[in-house]
Amino acid sequence: MTLTHDIRFLGTMAKPLARAARVGAVASVRGRWRPYRSWTGAEITDYDPFDPRTAAQPHEAYRGLHAGGRVHYNPNRNIWILSRLADVKAGARAADTLYSGDGVTRARVALPLLVTTDGKRHNEMRRHVLPAFTKAALESWRPMIDELAAKLVGEVLDAPGCDVVQRLTIPMPMLLIAHMLGVPDGDLNEFRRWSEATVQATEVELSRRGIMSLTSSITGIRDIHRYFRNQFAVGGLKGSDTILGKLLDENAGGSISDDELFFFAFLLLLAGNETTTNLLGGMFDMFARRPETFDMIRANHDLIPMAVEELLRFYSPVQGLYRTARTDYQVGDVTIPAGARVLLCIGAANRDPQVFDDPDEFRVDRNPTEHMAFGFGAHLCLGAQLTRMEARAVLRELATRVDRIEVIGQPRWSTNSTLRGPVEMTAKLFAAAAIK
Protein backbone atom coordinates (compact mmCIF):
# COMPACT_ATOMS: atom_id res chain seq x y z
CA MET A 1 0.00 0.00 0.00
CA THR A 2 1.33 3.43 -0.92
CA LEU A 3 0.86 6.73 0.85
CA THR A 4 -0.82 8.02 -2.31
CA HIS A 5 -3.38 5.20 -2.18
CA ASP A 6 -4.10 5.88 1.50
CA ILE A 7 -4.63 9.61 0.89
CA ARG A 8 -6.89 8.86 -2.09
CA PHE A 9 -8.90 6.42 0.03
CA LEU A 10 -9.26 8.95 2.86
CA GLY A 11 -10.59 11.49 0.38
CA THR A 12 -13.02 8.90 -0.98
CA MET A 13 -14.41 8.36 2.51
CA ALA A 14 -14.31 11.95 3.72
CA LYS A 15 -16.17 13.60 0.83
CA PRO A 16 -19.46 11.65 0.99
CA LEU A 17 -19.54 11.75 4.80
CA ALA A 18 -18.88 15.50 4.94
CA ARG A 19 -21.42 16.08 2.17
CA ALA A 20 -23.95 14.06 4.17
CA ALA A 21 -23.47 16.34 7.18
CA ARG A 22 -24.28 19.38 5.04
CA VAL A 23 -27.07 17.86 2.97
CA GLY A 24 -28.82 16.38 6.00
CA ALA A 25 -29.39 19.79 7.51
CA VAL A 26 -30.34 21.43 4.21
CA ALA A 27 -32.87 18.70 3.42
CA SER A 28 -34.36 19.15 6.87
CA VAL A 29 -34.92 22.85 6.23
CA ARG A 30 -36.18 22.39 2.66
CA GLY A 31 -38.58 19.72 3.83
CA ARG A 32 -40.56 22.37 5.71
CA TRP A 33 -41.95 23.81 2.52
CA ARG A 34 -41.32 21.36 -0.30
CA PRO A 35 -44.67 21.28 -2.15
CA TYR A 36 -45.32 17.56 -2.54
CA ARG A 37 -48.71 17.08 -4.14
CA SER A 38 -48.90 13.46 -3.02
CA TRP A 39 -49.51 14.15 0.64
CA THR A 40 -53.13 13.14 0.16
CA GLY A 41 -53.66 10.08 2.30
CA ALA A 42 -50.30 10.35 4.08
CA GLU A 43 -50.44 11.56 7.64
CA ILE A 44 -48.24 14.46 8.68
CA THR A 45 -46.37 13.41 11.81
CA ASP A 46 -44.04 14.99 14.32
CA TYR A 47 -42.42 11.60 14.97
CA ASP A 48 -38.73 12.37 14.83
CA PRO A 49 -36.32 9.41 14.98
CA PHE A 50 -33.43 11.86 15.46
CA ASP A 51 -34.78 13.35 18.68
CA PRO A 52 -32.46 11.88 21.36
CA ARG A 53 -35.28 11.07 23.76
CA THR A 54 -37.31 9.36 21.05
CA ALA A 55 -34.28 7.45 19.75
CA ALA A 56 -33.51 6.15 23.26
CA GLN A 57 -37.11 5.13 24.01
CA PRO A 58 -39.11 5.04 20.74
CA HIS A 59 -41.98 2.72 21.61
CA GLU A 60 -44.60 5.29 22.58
CA ALA A 61 -43.94 7.00 19.25
CA TYR A 62 -44.36 3.66 17.47
CA ARG A 63 -47.75 3.20 19.11
CA GLY A 64 -48.71 6.60 17.70
CA LEU A 65 -47.65 5.55 14.20
CA HIS A 66 -49.61 2.31 14.43
CA ALA A 67 -52.73 4.19 15.53
CA GLY A 68 -52.65 6.15 12.28
CA GLY A 69 -52.45 5.36 8.60
CA ARG A 70 -50.02 3.26 6.59
CA VAL A 71 -47.79 6.15 5.48
CA HIS A 72 -46.55 9.07 7.55
CA TYR A 73 -44.57 12.11 6.47
CA ASN A 74 -42.38 14.33 8.65
CA PRO A 75 -41.97 17.67 6.83
CA ASN A 76 -39.26 18.91 9.19
CA ARG A 77 -37.05 15.91 8.43
CA ASN A 78 -38.34 15.44 4.88
CA ILE A 79 -38.78 11.70 5.36
CA TRP A 80 -41.60 9.31 4.55
CA ILE A 81 -42.17 6.61 7.14
CA LEU A 82 -43.48 3.04 6.79
CA SER A 83 -44.21 1.35 10.11
CA ARG A 84 -46.46 -1.65 9.43
CA LEU A 85 -44.73 -4.99 9.05
CA ALA A 86 -46.29 -5.84 5.68
CA ASP A 87 -45.39 -2.44 4.23
CA VAL A 88 -41.84 -2.51 5.59
CA LYS A 89 -41.30 -6.00 4.16
CA ALA A 90 -42.75 -4.94 0.81
CA GLY A 91 -40.44 -1.91 0.82
CA ALA A 92 -37.44 -4.11 1.57
CA ARG A 93 -38.36 -6.36 -1.36
CA ALA A 94 -38.87 -3.48 -3.79
CA ALA A 95 -35.18 -2.92 -4.48
CA ASP A 96 -35.85 -1.79 -8.07
CA THR A 97 -38.04 1.07 -6.84
CA LEU A 98 -36.74 1.76 -3.33
CA TYR A 99 -33.01 1.51 -3.80
CA SER A 100 -30.12 1.46 -1.36
CA GLY A 101 -27.45 3.25 -3.36
CA ASP A 102 -27.82 6.51 -1.42
CA GLY A 103 -26.98 4.70 1.80
CA VAL A 104 -29.18 3.14 4.46
CA THR A 105 -28.97 5.95 7.01
CA ARG A 106 -30.79 9.24 6.41
CA ALA A 107 -27.69 10.98 5.12
CA ARG A 108 -27.08 10.18 1.46
CA VAL A 109 -23.67 8.48 1.64
CA ALA A 110 -22.78 6.16 -1.23
CA LEU A 111 -20.08 3.65 -0.29
CA PRO A 112 -19.21 0.34 -2.03
CA LEU A 113 -20.78 -1.83 0.67
CA LEU A 114 -23.00 -4.88 0.23
CA VAL A 115 -25.77 -3.12 2.12
CA THR A 116 -25.70 -0.08 -0.21
CA THR A 117 -25.83 -1.86 -3.56
CA ASP A 118 -28.75 -3.39 -5.41
CA GLY A 119 -29.46 -5.59 -8.40
CA LYS A 120 -26.71 -7.34 -10.34
CA ARG A 121 -23.84 -5.70 -8.45
CA HIS A 122 -25.35 -6.67 -5.11
CA ASN A 123 -25.80 -10.26 -6.25
CA GLU A 124 -22.18 -10.41 -7.42
CA MET A 125 -20.84 -9.02 -4.14
CA ARG A 126 -23.05 -11.34 -2.12
CA ARG A 127 -21.89 -14.34 -4.15
CA HIS A 128 -18.26 -13.42 -3.50
CA VAL A 129 -18.65 -13.38 0.30
CA LEU A 130 -21.24 -16.16 0.66
CA PRO A 131 -18.59 -18.90 1.24
CA ALA A 132 -17.79 -17.27 4.59
CA PHE A 133 -21.39 -17.71 5.76
CA THR A 134 -22.29 -21.25 4.79
CA LYS A 135 -23.64 -23.46 7.57
CA ALA A 136 -20.34 -25.35 7.73
CA ALA A 137 -18.31 -22.11 7.83
CA LEU A 138 -20.39 -20.69 10.67
CA GLU A 139 -20.33 -23.97 12.62
CA SER A 140 -16.54 -23.84 12.56
CA TRP A 141 -16.73 -20.77 14.80
CA ARG A 142 -19.03 -22.36 17.38
CA PRO A 143 -16.21 -23.54 19.72
CA MET A 144 -14.80 -20.01 19.86
CA ILE A 145 -18.27 -18.52 20.43
CA ASP A 146 -18.92 -20.92 23.31
CA GLU A 147 -15.47 -20.24 24.77
CA LEU A 148 -15.93 -16.46 24.62
CA ALA A 149 -19.42 -16.66 26.15
CA ALA A 150 -18.14 -18.78 29.07
CA LYS A 151 -15.14 -16.51 29.63
CA LEU A 152 -17.05 -13.22 29.54
CA VAL A 153 -19.99 -14.39 31.69
CA GLY A 154 -17.42 -15.63 34.19
CA GLU A 155 -15.74 -12.22 34.24
CA VAL A 156 -19.04 -10.45 34.91
CA LEU A 157 -19.79 -12.95 37.71
CA ASP A 158 -16.40 -12.14 39.24
CA ALA A 159 -16.94 -8.37 39.03
CA PRO A 160 -20.31 -7.56 40.65
CA GLY A 161 -21.43 -4.03 39.88
CA CYS A 162 -19.43 -3.76 36.63
CA ASP A 163 -20.61 -2.15 33.42
CA VAL A 164 -21.83 -5.20 31.52
CA VAL A 165 -21.66 -3.28 28.23
CA GLN A 166 -17.90 -2.79 28.57
CA ARG A 167 -17.29 -6.21 30.13
CA LEU A 168 -19.47 -8.40 27.90
CA THR A 169 -21.82 -6.96 25.27
CA ILE A 170 -19.09 -5.05 23.39
CA PRO A 171 -16.22 -7.58 23.76
CA MET A 172 -18.27 -10.62 22.74
CA PRO A 173 -18.85 -9.72 19.07
CA MET A 174 -15.72 -7.58 18.77
CA LEU A 175 -13.38 -10.36 19.87
CA LEU A 176 -15.14 -12.91 17.69
CA ILE A 177 -15.08 -10.73 14.59
CA ALA A 178 -11.45 -9.76 15.21
CA HIS A 179 -10.51 -13.44 15.26
CA MET A 180 -12.68 -14.14 12.22
CA LEU A 181 -10.87 -11.40 10.34
CA GLY A 182 -7.45 -12.62 11.43
CA VAL A 183 -6.54 -9.83 13.86
CA PRO A 184 -3.88 -11.13 16.29
CA ASP A 185 -4.29 -10.70 20.05
CA GLY A 186 -1.56 -8.07 20.18
CA ASP A 187 -3.59 -5.75 17.92
CA LEU A 188 -6.94 -6.15 19.67
CA ASN A 189 -6.84 -2.96 21.76
CA GLU A 190 -6.14 -0.76 18.76
CA PHE A 191 -8.63 -2.70 16.69
CA ARG A 192 -11.35 -2.13 19.29
CA ARG A 193 -10.62 1.60 19.35
CA TRP A 194 -10.83 1.80 15.55
CA SER A 195 -14.02 -0.26 15.50
CA GLU A 196 -15.77 1.95 18.04
CA ALA A 197 -14.82 5.05 16.04
CA THR A 198 -16.24 3.66 12.79
CA VAL A 199 -19.71 3.17 14.31
CA GLN A 200 -20.07 6.95 14.54
CA ALA A 201 -20.32 7.02 10.74
CA THR A 202 -23.91 5.77 11.00
CA GLU A 203 -25.18 9.07 12.41
CA VAL A 204 -23.78 12.16 10.72
CA GLU A 205 -24.93 15.24 12.63
CA LEU A 206 -24.40 18.91 11.69
CA SER A 207 -23.02 20.28 14.95
CA ARG A 208 -19.66 20.81 16.60
CA ARG A 209 -19.97 17.43 18.27
CA GLY A 210 -21.08 15.90 14.98
CA ILE A 211 -18.06 17.26 13.13
CA MET A 212 -15.74 15.91 15.85
CA SER A 213 -17.49 12.55 15.61
CA LEU A 214 -17.18 12.60 11.82
CA THR A 215 -13.44 13.32 12.04
CA SER A 216 -12.97 10.49 14.53
CA SER A 217 -14.98 8.13 12.35
CA ILE A 218 -13.01 8.90 9.18
CA THR A 219 -9.74 8.45 11.09
CA GLY A 220 -10.91 5.09 12.44
CA ILE A 221 -11.95 3.90 8.99
CA ARG A 222 -8.61 5.03 7.54
CA ASP A 223 -6.67 3.20 10.25
CA ILE A 224 -8.60 -0.03 9.70
CA HIS A 225 -8.15 0.32 5.94
CA ARG A 226 -4.40 0.80 6.32
CA TYR A 227 -4.20 -2.16 8.70
CA PHE A 228 -5.91 -4.58 6.32
CA ARG A 229 -4.09 -3.31 3.25
CA ASN A 230 -0.86 -4.09 5.07
CA GLN A 231 -2.17 -7.53 5.96
CA PHE A 232 -3.08 -8.18 2.32
CA ALA A 233 0.32 -6.91 1.15
CA VAL A 234 2.37 -9.25 3.36
CA GLY A 235 0.15 -12.22 2.49
CA GLY A 236 -0.46 -13.09 6.13
CA LEU A 237 -4.12 -13.94 5.55
CA LYS A 238 -3.69 -16.22 2.53
CA GLY A 239 -4.42 -19.82 3.41
CA SER A 240 -5.54 -18.87 6.91
CA ASP A 241 -8.69 -20.20 8.58
CA THR A 242 -10.21 -16.72 8.74
CA ILE A 243 -13.08 -15.17 6.80
CA LEU A 244 -10.74 -13.04 4.74
CA GLY A 245 -8.39 -15.98 4.24
CA LYS A 246 -11.23 -18.12 2.93
CA LEU A 247 -12.43 -15.35 0.66
CA LEU A 248 -8.93 -14.85 -0.71
CA ASP A 249 -8.75 -18.58 -1.47
CA GLU A 250 -12.20 -18.57 -3.10
CA ASN A 251 -11.27 -15.59 -5.24
CA ALA A 252 -7.76 -16.65 -6.20
CA GLY A 253 -8.47 -15.59 -9.78
CA GLY A 254 -8.71 -11.96 -8.75
CA SER A 255 -12.49 -11.56 -9.03
CA ILE A 256 -12.57 -9.61 -5.77
CA SER A 257 -10.23 -6.69 -5.11
CA ASP A 258 -8.41 -5.80 -1.91
CA ASP A 259 -10.66 -2.76 -1.49
CA GLU A 260 -13.76 -4.92 -1.87
CA LEU A 261 -12.38 -7.27 0.77
CA PHE A 262 -11.76 -4.31 3.04
CA PHE A 263 -15.27 -2.93 2.62
CA PHE A 264 -16.65 -6.38 3.42
CA ALA A 265 -14.56 -6.42 6.63
CA PHE A 266 -15.74 -2.88 7.38
CA LEU A 267 -19.40 -3.87 7.00
CA LEU A 268 -18.88 -6.91 9.21
CA LEU A 269 -17.41 -4.65 11.87
CA LEU A 270 -20.20 -2.13 11.63
CA ALA A 271 -23.16 -4.49 11.39
CA GLY A 272 -21.87 -7.55 13.24
CA ASN A 273 -20.53 -5.70 16.25
CA GLU A 274 -23.40 -3.33 16.87
CA THR A 275 -26.28 -5.73 16.20
CA THR A 276 -24.94 -8.32 18.64
CA THR A 277 -23.90 -5.76 21.26
CA ASN A 278 -27.38 -4.21 21.23
CA LEU A 279 -29.10 -7.60 21.38
CA LEU A 280 -27.00 -8.77 24.35
CA GLY A 281 -27.64 -5.49 26.16
CA GLY A 282 -31.38 -6.00 25.67
CA MET A 283 -31.02 -9.53 27.06
CA PHE A 284 -29.58 -8.26 30.35
CA ASP A 285 -32.17 -5.49 30.55
CA MET A 286 -35.07 -7.88 30.01
CA PHE A 287 -34.08 -10.64 32.39
CA ALA A 288 -33.17 -8.20 35.15
CA ARG A 289 -36.66 -6.68 34.87
CA ARG A 290 -38.40 -10.03 34.36
CA PRO A 291 -36.78 -12.55 36.72
CA GLU A 292 -39.77 -14.89 36.38
CA THR A 293 -39.10 -15.14 32.64
CA PHE A 294 -35.42 -15.82 33.29
CA ASP A 295 -36.47 -18.59 35.70
CA MET A 296 -38.53 -20.20 32.94
CA ILE A 297 -35.44 -20.35 30.72
CA ARG A 298 -33.25 -21.64 33.55
CA ALA A 299 -35.74 -24.45 34.05
CA ASN A 300 -36.04 -25.27 30.34
CA HIS A 301 -33.07 -24.54 28.08
CA ASP A 302 -35.14 -25.56 25.06
CA LEU A 303 -36.69 -22.08 25.30
CA ILE A 304 -33.38 -20.38 24.50
CA PRO A 305 -33.78 -20.19 20.69
CA MET A 306 -37.33 -18.80 21.00
CA ALA A 307 -36.22 -16.34 23.68
CA VAL A 308 -33.50 -15.00 21.39
CA GLU A 309 -36.02 -14.49 18.55
CA GLU A 310 -38.34 -12.64 20.91
CA LEU A 311 -35.45 -10.48 22.12
CA LEU A 312 -34.68 -9.64 18.49
CA ARG A 313 -38.31 -8.66 17.87
CA PHE A 314 -38.75 -6.79 21.14
CA TYR A 315 -35.54 -4.75 21.09
CA SER A 316 -34.84 -4.52 17.33
CA PRO A 317 -31.08 -3.79 17.48
CA VAL A 318 -31.40 -2.07 14.09
CA GLN A 319 -34.33 0.34 14.36
CA GLY A 320 -34.64 1.35 10.74
CA LEU A 321 -33.07 1.55 7.29
CA TYR A 322 -33.53 4.16 4.59
CA ARG A 323 -34.22 3.84 0.89
CA THR A 324 -34.60 6.35 -1.95
CA ALA A 325 -37.60 6.16 -4.26
CA ARG A 326 -36.36 5.88 -7.86
CA THR A 327 -39.89 6.45 -9.14
CA ASP A 328 -43.24 7.12 -7.49
CA TYR A 329 -43.93 4.32 -4.99
CA GLN A 330 -47.49 3.36 -4.16
CA VAL A 331 -48.55 2.26 -0.65
CA GLY A 332 -52.31 1.84 -0.46
CA ASP A 333 -53.87 5.14 -1.49
CA VAL A 334 -50.64 7.09 -0.96
CA THR A 335 -48.05 7.82 -3.64
CA ILE A 336 -44.59 8.40 -2.23
CA PRO A 337 -42.94 10.69 -4.80
CA ALA A 338 -39.80 9.90 -6.76
CA GLY A 339 -36.67 11.14 -5.00
CA ALA A 340 -38.15 10.80 -1.52
CA ARG A 341 -36.16 9.40 1.39
CA VAL A 342 -38.18 6.54 2.88
CA LEU A 343 -37.64 5.14 6.37
CA LEU A 344 -38.37 1.43 6.68
CA CYS A 345 -39.04 1.52 10.41
CA ILE A 346 -38.03 -1.97 11.53
CA GLY A 347 -38.45 -1.20 15.23
CA ALA A 348 -42.08 -0.23 14.68
CA ALA A 349 -42.74 -3.11 12.27
CA ASN A 350 -41.55 -5.60 14.89
CA ARG A 351 -44.23 -4.26 17.23
CA ASP A 352 -47.05 -4.13 14.70
CA PRO A 353 -50.28 -4.94 16.61
CA GLN A 354 -51.83 -6.31 13.42
CA VAL A 355 -49.23 -9.10 13.46
CA PHE A 356 -48.17 -9.62 17.09
CA ASP A 357 -50.62 -9.97 19.95
CA ASP A 358 -49.74 -7.56 22.78
CA PRO A 359 -46.64 -6.43 20.84
CA ASP A 360 -45.21 -4.44 23.77
CA GLU A 361 -45.25 -7.56 25.95
CA PHE A 362 -42.23 -9.87 26.00
CA ARG A 363 -43.28 -13.52 25.71
CA VAL A 364 -40.47 -16.00 25.98
CA ASP A 365 -42.39 -18.70 24.10
CA ARG A 366 -43.85 -16.45 21.38
CA ASN A 367 -41.41 -17.66 18.67
CA PRO A 368 -42.02 -14.59 16.47
CA THR A 369 -40.98 -15.96 13.08
CA GLU A 370 -42.46 -12.90 11.31
CA HIS A 371 -40.00 -10.37 12.79
CA MET A 372 -37.54 -8.65 10.50
CA ALA A 373 -34.74 -7.71 12.88
CA PHE A 374 -32.26 -8.84 10.23
CA GLY A 375 -33.99 -7.15 7.32
CA PHE A 376 -35.83 -8.90 4.51
CA GLY A 377 -35.50 -9.80 0.86
CA ALA A 378 -32.26 -9.39 -1.07
CA HIS A 379 -30.67 -7.50 1.83
CA LEU A 380 -31.41 -10.10 4.49
CA CYS A 381 -28.40 -9.93 6.80
CA LEU A 382 -25.72 -12.50 5.94
CA GLY A 383 -24.52 -12.55 9.55
CA ALA A 384 -27.93 -13.24 11.10
CA GLN A 385 -27.04 -16.79 12.13
CA LEU A 386 -23.77 -15.64 13.64
CA THR A 387 -25.59 -13.14 15.88
CA ARG A 388 -28.07 -15.83 16.89
CA MET A 389 -25.23 -18.21 17.78
CA GLU A 390 -23.58 -15.59 19.98
CA ALA A 391 -26.81 -14.65 21.78
CA ARG A 392 -27.78 -18.28 22.37
CA ALA A 393 -24.32 -19.07 23.76
CA VAL A 394 -24.43 -16.15 26.21
CA LEU A 395 -28.00 -16.94 27.30
CA ARG A 396 -27.09 -20.61 27.78
CA GLU A 397 -24.18 -19.60 30.04
CA LEU A 398 -26.42 -17.28 32.03
CA ALA A 399 -29.18 -19.87 32.37
CA THR A 400 -26.65 -22.47 33.57
CA ARG A 401 -24.47 -20.39 35.87
CA VAL A 402 -26.67 -17.55 37.16
CA ASP A 403 -29.64 -17.51 39.53
CA ARG A 404 -30.52 -13.85 39.15
CA ILE A 405 -29.54 -10.77 37.14
CA GLU A 406 -29.72 -7.39 38.80
CA VAL A 407 -29.31 -4.06 37.00
CA ILE A 408 -28.26 -1.30 39.36
CA GLY A 409 -29.70 2.11 38.55
CA GLN A 410 -31.06 3.05 35.15
CA PRO A 411 -29.28 1.85 32.01
CA ARG A 412 -28.28 4.57 29.54
CA TRP A 413 -29.59 3.87 26.06
CA SER A 414 -28.11 4.89 22.73
CA THR A 415 -29.52 7.99 21.06
CA ASN A 416 -28.45 6.77 17.62
CA SER A 417 -31.59 6.68 15.47
CA THR A 418 -30.44 3.60 13.54
CA LEU A 419 -28.73 1.36 16.11
CA ARG A 420 -30.41 1.04 19.51
CA GLY A 421 -29.12 -0.62 22.65
CA PRO A 422 -27.77 0.11 26.13
CA VAL A 423 -24.47 2.00 26.12
CA GLU A 424 -24.01 1.80 29.88
CA MET A 425 -25.52 -0.76 32.28
CA THR A 426 -24.29 -1.56 35.76
CA ALA A 427 -25.11 -5.19 36.51
CA LYS A 428 -24.61 -7.84 39.15
CA LEU A 429 -24.95 -11.56 38.51
CA PHE A 430 -25.80 -13.94 41.36
CA ALA A 431 -24.15 -17.31 40.83
CA ALA A 432 -26.33 -20.41 40.77
CA ALA A 433 -26.15 -22.39 43.99
CA ALA A 434 -24.58 -25.42 42.33
CA ILE A 435 -21.55 -23.46 41.15
CA LYS A 436 -20.96 -21.04 44.04
Description:
The chain has 436 residues and is of the alpha+beta class. It has a single domain, classed as Orthogonal Bundle (Cytochrome p450). It is 50% helix and 12% strand. It contains 17 helices and eleven strands. The chain has helices at residues 3-30, 52-56, 59-66, 85-93, 119-129, 135-139, 142-157, 164-169, 171-180, 188-198, 208-234, 243-250, 258-289, 291-299, 304-315, 346-349, 384-401, and strands at residues 43-44, 71-74, 79-82, 98-99, 162-163, 321-325, 329-331, 334-336, 341-344, 402-413, 422-431. Helix 7 packs antiparallel against helix 9 (171-180), helix 9 (171-180) runs antiparallel to helix 13 (258-289) and helix 10 crosses helix 11. It is globular. Mean pLDDT is 83; it is low at 1-11 and 17-35.
Q: Number of helical runs?
A: 17
CATH topology: Cytochrome p450
Gyration radius, to the nearest Å? 22 Å
Q: Overall 3D geometry?
A: globular
Overall average pLDDT: 83
CATH superfamily: Cytochrome P450
Helix content: 40-55%
Please give the alpha-carbon distance between the first and last residues. 53 Å
Q: H/E series, N to C?
A: HEHHEEHEHHHEHHHHHHHHEEEEHHEE
Strand line-up in the sheet with most strands: 1-2-3-9-6-4
Question: Could you say what the CATH architecture is?
Answer: Orthogonal Bundle
Largest sheet: 6 strands, mixed
Q: How many structural domains in the coordinates?
A: 1
Number of strands: 11
Strand content: 5-15%
Task: Identify the CATH class.
Answer: Mainly Alpha
Return the structural class. alpha+beta
Low-confidence region ranges: 1-11, 17-35
